[in-house]
Amino acid sequence: PAAVAELKKMGFASVVNLREASEAGADIDAEAAAAKAAGINFIHLPFNAARPDPALVDNFLKAVTDRKNDPAFIHCASGNRAAAVWMIKRMQIDKWDADRAGTEAAALGLTNPALKTFALEYAQAHKR
Q: Which of 100, 114, 124, 106 is nearest to 50 (CA)?
C-alpha cells in the first residue's frame, strides 16, 4: 500500500494485485484504499497458484487490455503468478511465440514449472 502513490507518480494507471487476501502481508483492503487515494485503478484478481483458474486469466486479459488501465503495475508475492499471466498476455494479445514469452517470463520471476505449464496450456487452449 505504501508504494501505490509512487506508482501513480511513475505513470501507472492501474495496479493489478494477484495475491489472495489470506496470504501473509497481502492487506488487499489497504492497497485498494491507497489506490483510491492516489487516483489509480485497483484490480484484485486473487490467483491460487495451486489451482490456477482459466477464468482469472480471462479477467486479467480483459483488465490489462482496457486502455483506462494502461500501463498496469502487476504484482503478486514472488513474481511467479504475475510472470505467468504476463506470459499468457504476450502469447495471446501480443502474438509472441512461447519461447520468447517464456524467456521474458523467466526474467520477470517465473520459476514455478506448474505455472509455466498452466500458461502454455491456457495459450494453446485459447488460441486467438
A: 114
pLDDT above 80 (res 128): no
Question: Is residue 123 within 8 Å of 88, Cβ to Cβ?
Answer: yes
| pTM recorded for the entire structure | 0.94
CA torsion, ordered 126, 62, 25, 115, to nearest 10 deg: 10
CA angle 18, 22, 23 (to 5 degrees): 65
pLDDT in tens, 87-116: 999 999 999 999 999 999 999 999 999 999
CA-based nearest residue to 19, from 6, 28, 30: 28
